[in-house]
Amino acid sequence: MKILIVEDEKLLADSIGKLLKSKGFDVETSYDGEMGKEYAELGIYDLLILDVMMPKMNGYELAEKIRAKHLGTPILMLTAKSDLEDRIHGLNSGADYYLTKPFDTRELLACVNALLRRQGAQVDVVAFGNTSLELASAMLVCGPNRVRLSAKEFDIMRFLFQTGERNLSKETILARVWGYDSDAVENHVEVYIGFLRKKLASIGSDIRIEAIRRLGYHLEVKQDD
Questions:
Q1: How far apart are CA 161 and CA 127, in angstroms?
Q2: Which of 166, 73, 168, 16 shows the shortest CA–CA distance to 62?
Q3: Helix (H, G, I), strand (E, B), or coil: what is residue 225?
Q4: Beta strands, E only, the chain
């Protein structure tokens, strides 16, 4: 499960991230609302944890923009504001749960697990065209045909499935799959895209990974001639 934390208090954000990672979650962190918006709109996360008071864009605004993109990712909102009107504002902005600071880590984990359970089957499989990707098994499936993906193939394919026809840049793929501090270069992305194209073809998928110069990759469904 992949979680995005958007919190401008770096120590708190890193502390929450460390806690969630210790529980087996894949965690990424952004320290301001505008960058958090860019990450969240990729549609690759299973849960968003948003602070309310942040520079550039507050949590209410961020939640509203995420929902305006028709992204149904669960949102857990963190805030020092405990008034009823503030909680109502947060929920009306698109949050699924509102947790007041300071909070016990056990309560945070309970909220995270509850929101992820609420998604149920929605996060078990993603699909595009006639092909699906099983998140638990890392299997690409098309009708009776199945092929297993390596860890990096799976991460890239998942991002492509979730962004669909929107372009996913090589820089974004590098950062998400190999990490910001990695020595990997764009050629690594190109190689793995080649692997994925072969695997899609091997199971008879109607998905095509299209490349657009300077913009990156997106998925299309092949049209019959």
A1: 7
A2: 73
A3: coil
A4: 2-6, 26-30, 47-51, 75-79, 97-100, 125-128, 131-134, 139-142, 145-148, 207-212, 216-221
Distance CA 167, CA 92 (A): 30
- Total number of residues shown for the chain: 225
C-alpha to C-alpha distance for 44 and 153, rounded to whole angstroms: 15
What tens digit of pLDDT does each residue of 110-143 get? 989 888 876 654 456 788 889 999 877 889 999 9
What is this structure's pTM?
Answer: 0.59
Q: How far apart are CA 207 and CA 197, in angstroms?
A: 9
95, HSE (Cβ side, Cα atoms, 13 Å)? 25
Q: Give the Cα separation of 31 and 93 in Å (integer).
A: 20
User: Rounded to whole angstroms, what are the CA distances from 8 to 12, 46, 152, 153?
Assistant: 8, 21, 30, 32
